[in-house]
Design a protein that fits this description.
Shape: globular
Strand order of the largest sheet: 1-3-8-5-6
Order of helices and strands: EEEEEEEEEEHHEHHHHHHH
CATH topology of the largest domain: Jelly Rolls
CATH superfamily of the largest domain: Jelly Rolls
Strand content: 15-25%
CATH architecture of the largest domain: Sandwich
Helix content: 40-55%
Structural class: alpha+beta
Oligomer: single chain
Length: 274
């Protein structure tokens, strides 16, 4: 399914983004994607199946995974869970970049893991209460976390393959961000290729090689993700939602939706309203 660039925006009152994982109710798949930010998934209850490229990590309560900038990942959440996600802007670490102007963190367990979980839990609890001075308290924990990341988890010598992977996905980032802004339009491969000065054949091969997906399927998956948000937050007719997000009709929307979520849009809406 999708394998796309995700635009990450910090919380307005914090220099990073922190939230409860959207797959908290279970029966959820977040398909392959990447973003420039560093990301941490910290599981406090339940389980997650996490994939970094082709490697699988089974996360249980008390465990977390670090996702590097431009590292392809996907998540399978079969059952309800409590997972806190932190997304940290890449630029935060600029004083610690390698000569190749990147930074990478280890996925291996560390003796500091328990402390990392404690800090994330404390930060979220304080943020959720929103008491006077909460932002200073949260940022205090955040800088303690950054200290652990750069002193205990940072990979000081990155491999050639890590640099190549980082740079090749950067090439697609501008294109996928453009698609995010224009997915509701009739966006053909030829139109997109012309916009960025590529031939349709070259751009098609770029998607297949780096995104492991064809362009049309990628675009449909952006559409279904945004359509799902409208499905959850409004009582608009499903046929109207389909048209609002670039699908030819409700049948095309239902087909793509079922492929991602395993059920029809009408069933999904019914479950969410129960």
């Amino acid at each position: 399914m999708e394998y796309k660039h995700e635009l990450v925006m910090p919380n307005e009152d914090l220099p990073f983004k922190m939230f409860i994982f959207e797959g908290k109710d279970g029966n959820y798949v977040r398909e392959k994607h990447w973003h420039r930010s560093i990301e941490i998934f910290a599981v406090f209850d339940g389980k997650l199946r996490f994939f970094l490229d082709e490697d699988e990590y089974s996360l249980e309560a008390g465990e977390f995974v670090l996702v590097n900038s431009n590292e392809v990942h996907s998540i399978f959440s079969p059952k309800p869970n409590v997972t806190i996600v932190l997304q940290i802007p890449f630029k935060v670490f600029e004083n610690y970049y390698t000569d190749e102007q990147i930074i990478a963190f280890s996925h291996e367990p560390s003796v500091q893991d328990k402390r990392v979980m404690e800090l994330i839990g404390e930060m979220y609890d304080i943020y959720a209460r929103q008491q006077c001075g909460y932002d200073f308290q949260v940022q205090s924990g955040f800088y303690k976390l950054l200290y652990l990341l750069v002193t205990k988890y940072r990979v000081k010598e990155v491999t050639h393959e890590m640099v190549r992977s980082y740079r090749r996905l950067n090439r697609l980032s501008e294109i996928t961000a453009y698609l995010e802004d224009n997915y509701q339009k009739d966006m053909s491969l030829e139109t997109l290729a012309s916009t960025f000065g590529y031939s349709p054949t070259y751009l098609s091969k770029m998607f297949q090689k780096y995104a492991k997906i064809n362009y049309r399927e990628y675009l449909q998956n952006i559409r279904v993700e945004y359509a799902c948000r409208e499905l959850e937050s409004t009582d608009h007719m499903i046929s109207d939602i389909a048209i609002n997000h670039g699908f030819a009709n409700s049948k095309a929307f239902a087909k793509t939706f079922r492929k991602k979520y395993g059920i029809l849009p009408s069933e999904y809406r019914k479950r969410k309203s129960e």
